[in-house]
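Case study 2.
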Amino acid sequence: MKVKELIDHLDCRLHAEGRPDEDVYRGVAGDLLSHVMGAAPEGSCWVTIQTHVNVAAVAVLKEMPLVILASDREPAPDLVERCLKEGICLVSTPLSIFEVCSRLGNLGIEG
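Prediction:
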């Protein structure tokens, strides 16, 4: 599924457009950066409540086209700036991490 299609289903607010036509087939949820670095498949979307610039560093490392900030979290300005620079789509949603993952699963995104 395309990034732009996913964010349409998640009641998202866009902070950085990234590459909206990039495909996403897998996802990961978590807030411990080292866990996400080890567990996330390349090209997956990431659901988190972390809002600092290191989120972008992990997304770049794992070639993640989409970062979803759950629970209405607001990204730090330097995170937005880095996502814009790196072509990472950054969105926030009022949905909880659990709700986001449930919707992603219903859309066919595997964990």
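The two ends are 14 Å apart (CA to CA).
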